[in-house]
């Protein structure tokens, strides 16, 4: 089966590009990114705040089974053009990683399919590689102590 | 010069990737490898040196010649690097797609 999600990470660059085609009309794909309830469902995190507009912001919080918060992240939505693009930052809280800049481009392919392209810019090449090694990305369901384990192993 | 070369820096170069492909099926001497490329011999040697430094290739003395062969473990490490990251996104996007398909039919 062809891989629907493609990662392009050129060596020596502090960015990576994720592309994915969806069997969804453009409007539905975009909605999945701006509707807080829907975002919570597929990201598997609590969406504390999500203001999808120019100069908007968002905040995610993930708890474990006992209710302990294990993951927190937030960002600023620099711009949001419906069904076209979202430009935002992402930063994990209580983690030793710098903020990253994300360009999300939504594109109509057919009436019933669409494509999403996410370009992520990291502060350094090393940080990008580290984030990829750890499988890091917005909203991951990773317990914070597990994160600490991995980070300490990398040192 | 980097003392510890980054594997991913090593595979960024198209010639070095071609060398890895070439060596995937058999071990070869530097001369035999160089014969497959238009680049000058010292250039190919430099590529081999880089690939060896980052442990993607291993050297083996066979009589007077040095043969190069792929280090499968290190190669696996490279393949493993992006794949879990990609899979995580794949799963997340599959979920998104399913949720929105259900949403559409509501």
Automatic annotation (TrEMBL), chain A:
- Protein's name according to its UniProt entry: ATPase
The Activator of Hsp90 ATPase homologue 1/2-like C-terminal domain extends over: 23-151
Organism expressing this protein natively: Pedobacter gandavensis
Q: Which family does it belong to?
A: Belongs to the AHA1 family.
Q: Which SUPFAM superfamilies match?
A: Bet v1-like
List residues traversing the bilayer: none
Question: Known InterPro entries for this protein?
Answer: ASHA1/2-like_C (IPR013538), START-like_dom_sf (IPR023393)
Q: Domain of life, per the record?
A: Bacteria
Automatic annotation (TrEMBL), chain B:
**Family matches, as InterPro entries:** ArsR-like_HTH, HTH_ArsR_DNA-bd_dom, HTH_MetalResp_TranReg, WH-like_DNA-bd_sf, WH_DNA-bd_sf
Q: Which residues form the HTH arsR-type domain?
A: 1-90
Q: Which UniProt keywords apply?
A: DNA-binding, Signal, Transcription, Transcription regulation
**Which PROSITE patterns does UniProt cross-reference here?**
HTH_ARSR_2 (PS50987)
Stretch forming the signal peptide: 1-34
Pfam families per UniProt:
HTH_20
Please name the PANTHER family in this protein's record: TRANSCRIPTIONAL REGULATOR, ARSR FAMILY (PTHR33154), TRANSCRIPTIONAL REPRESSOR SDPR (PTHR33154:SF33)
Question: What is the protein name given in its UniProt record?
Answer: Metalloregulator ArsR/SmtB family transcription factor
To which species is this protein native?
Answer: Pedobacter gandavensis
């Amino acid at each position: 089966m062809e891989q629907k999600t493609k990662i392009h990470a050129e060596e020596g660059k502090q960015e990576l590009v994720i592309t994915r085609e969806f069997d969804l009309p453009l409007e539905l794909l975009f909605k999945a990114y701006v509707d807080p309830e829907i975002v919570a469902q597929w990201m598997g995190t609590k969406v504390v705040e999500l203001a999808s507009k120019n100069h908007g912001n968002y905040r995610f919080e993930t708890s474990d089974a006992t209710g302990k918060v294990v993951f927190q992240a937030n960002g600023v939505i620099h711009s949001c053009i419906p069904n076209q693009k979202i430009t935002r930052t992402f930063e994990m809280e209580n983690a030793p990683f710098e903020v990253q800049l994300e360009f999300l481009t939504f594109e109509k392919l057919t009436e019933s399919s669409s494509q999403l392209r996410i370009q992520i810019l990291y502060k350094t090449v090393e940080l990008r590689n580290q984030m990829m090694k750890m499988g890091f990305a917005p909203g991951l369901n990773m317990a914070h102590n597990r994160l600490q384990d991995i980070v300490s192993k990398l040192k | 010069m980097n003392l510890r070369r980054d594997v991913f820096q090593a595979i960024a170069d198209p010639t070095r990737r071609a060398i890895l492909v070439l060596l995937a099926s058999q071990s070869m001497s530097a001369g035999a490898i160089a014969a497959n490329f238009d680049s000058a011999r010292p250039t190919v040697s430099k590529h081999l040196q880089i690939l060896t430094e980052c442990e993607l290739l291993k050297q083996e003395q066979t009589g007077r010649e040095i043969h190069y062969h792929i280090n499968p473990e290190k190669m696996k490490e490279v393949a493993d690097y992006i794949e879990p990251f990609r899979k995580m996104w794949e799963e997340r996007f599959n979920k998104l797609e399913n949720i929105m398909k259900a949403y559409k039919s509501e």
